[in-house]
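Thread: Newbie trying to understand structure tokens

Hi all, I'm a second-year student working on a class project, and my supervisor (Dr. K.) asked me to get a predicted structure for one chain before our next meeting. I've only ever worked with sequences, so writing a 3D structure as a token string is new to me. If someone could post the tokens and maybe explain what I'm looking at, I'd be very grateful. Here's the chain:
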Amino acid sequence: MSENSVYQFNVQTLDGEEISLSEYKDKVLLIVNTASACGFTPQLKDLAALKEQYKLEKFEILAFPSNDFGGQEPLEGAAIATFCENYGSNFPVFDKIRVRGPYAHPLYQFFNDRKRNGKLKSIPRWNFHKFLIDKTGKVVDFYYPFTKPTSAKIRKKVNRLLAL
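---
Reply by user tm_fold:
Sure, no problem. This is what the structure looks like when written as tokens:
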């Protein structure tokens, strides 16, 4: 397994099960830090629409709730799952994590270290910061919160990666 791949990381599901991101091998991934009480929260619907658009493809969205920005994720566990279902979520939502600072989850420390990921240095500045990952688990790009998941910019890049 490559050291500059997201497959080296384990994450926890909302019900506490630890899984390896290597379970998503050979899929294009969009990894997003989410929050239920944010001005960008309606993007959960856009994420569901994007997932639906690529449902027959090797594509997955992975959502990581975070309370790092203005305390905008007050929910825990099953309450997060229920909230996301209200927006039609059709993608995995993981346990709440830190995405910035010294206690950031190792996956997000990886996104912030160009030497480790081989591509970029990007710390989320707010909720709904998105990272695009290719089928080999390598970081390809990132998008700021104001870039909608259904934007042409994201869809074009997803299409290119799926064609590889």
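A couple of things are worth pointing out once you decode it. Residues 61 and 164 are 18 Å apart (CA to CA). DSSP finds five helices and six strands in the chain. Feel free to ask follow-ups in this thread.
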